[in-house]
Amino acid sequence: MALMERRLAHGATSQLGLQPASAPGAWGARTSALWLRVRGRLLGWPLPLAVLVLWWVAARFEWVAPQVLPSPHAVALTFQDALLSGELWANLQISLLRVVAGFAVGLAGGLLLGVAMGLSPTFKDYVYPLFKAFSQVPVLGWLPLLMLLVGIDEALKIILISKAALVPIALNTYKGIQNVPTRYIEVARVLKFTRWQLLSKVVFPAALAPIWNGVRYGLTHAWLALVVVELLASSEGLGFMIVYGRQLFQLDVVLAAVVVVGAVGYALDKLLAAIERRLLGWRKEAF
Q1: Residues 155 and 208 occupy one common structural domain
Q2: DSSP state of 234
Q3: What domain range is 226 assigned to?
Q4: Is 249 left (phi over 0), alpha (psi -120 to 50) or beta?
């Protein structure tokens, strides 16, 4: 009787086109997916390790003068000393506060401008040509003028960082709203959605992916602009550490600060990527 029940259960499952959870095919699929994830993460390591080995060999055999290219060990010791003394953390904290303030301003302005251009063709016709011209001027192009207008204090840094963040956020927000499928709007009108319901339940959810891409690009550009501004007009921050080390010909300090800049930028992008998976995870479930 038990054997018959198992056969009947197996037959019913086969008729439905399903396989038991413990089937070899399901196990193989899970194993393959796990291996692909692990393989994808491992593929990013060989090149950085090769660069590190090449750096160590070049310093070890003095292919380049030690005053110009300090060894990885010397840079690690400098990083440790700066961390223990609190110098690195103090400059990192100042840089992070600057980028957060500038990015917040750029985020608010970029979202408002992008939404306005995306929802109002008239507003877009008036503003978009000037916005495109404004976006073509790099951050350094505004530096001399702003130094005359606001000096070299914190206002200068916040304005330039916010400009760097605003452009990709506004552009991606505008494009995201413009590219919402027309059939979504037609269905909402058939259902007699109010304007607020149309925006909150149709337009903004459909445009969320490109908008979030703009936010990620905006943060990346804000971080790059921060370092550039601190290199040219600052007495504090990671960019100042790089300039200070170059002026004293302490290339170990320069390389330690450069490594921190790259690591923090990478961590910020990964943080936004993790938030994106939480915000847009419903798309995978829906499809």
Answers
A1: yes
A2: -
A3: 70-286
A4: left
Model pLDDT, residue 33: 62
Give pLDDT tens digits for 162-200.
999 999 999 999 999 999 888 888 888 888 888 888 888
Same domain? 32 vs 165:
no
Sort 36 into a burial class: Cβ within 10 Å, 0-12 / 13-18 / 19+. exposed
Q: Which residue stretches of 120-203 are H helix?
A: 121-136, 139-150, 154-178, 182-190, 195-198
- Best CA proximity match to 166, nearest among 126, 124, 131: 131
Are 46 and 86 within one domain? no
Question: Is position 10 within any domain?
Answer: no
Backbone dihedral angles phi then psi of residue 236, each to the nearest 5 degrees: -150, 160
Q: Is the Cβ–Cβ distance between 174 and 123 less than 8 Å?
A: no
Residue 8 has pLDDT above 80, yes or no: no
Residue 22: the pLDDT is 46
Claim to verify: residue 28 and residue 76 sit in the same structural domain: no
Round to whole Å and give the CA distance between 1 and 46.
58
Cα-trace Rg, the chain: 27
* Number of domains, the chain: 2
232 and 275, same domain (yes or no): yes
Say if residue 235 is in the same domain as residue 135: yes
